[in-house]
Write a structure and sequence with these properties.
50% of the residues lie in helices and 8% in strands. It contains five helices and three strands; from the N terminus they run αββααααβ. It has a three-stranded antiparallel sheet, with no helix packed on it. By secondary structure, it is mainly alpha-helical. It has a single domain, classed as Cytochrome C3, CATH 3.90.10.10. It is globular and about 40 Å long.
């Protein structure tokens, strides 16, 4: 293989890898979640993707589908506050305790009517 061809192949592989990394951030930048009686929750999805890095941390509990949390609650497959208490607040409180930057740790800081 000629040197020019090798350089072209390497450049193509680097470019493809860069695109693959960029595609990992999928879903809306911000998502509005149904927060029940306390009001909606504006959820900064991309910030969480960048911070956590592993989609399965949250999506092991619910699939990546719009409106799925509300749907699963109606079907009684998720308990009210299950995601919030066992995933969101747990993570935020652990990060706060570790002295790391974190999101809200109280209900009223996320829910808005």
């Amino acid at each position: 293989m000629k040197a020019g061809t090798v350089v072209s192949v390497v450049a193509a592989l680097i470019f493809t890898g860069t695109i693959a990394i960029a595609v990992q951030n999928h879903g809306n930048e911000n998502i509005q979640l149904d927060g029940g009686k306390k009001g909606t929750v504006n959820f900064p999805h991309h910030i969480h993707q960048d911070t956590i890095g592993d989609c399965a941390i949250c999506h092991a509990v619910f699939p990546k589908k719009p409106g799925i949390i509300k749907k699963l609650k109606v079907q009684k497959k998720l308990k009210s506050k299950q995601v919030m208490n066992k995933t969101c607040l747990k993570c935020h409180r652990e990060r706060k305790k570790a002295g790391e930057r974190t999101g809200p740790t109280k209900c009223s800081q996320c829910h808005s009517k």
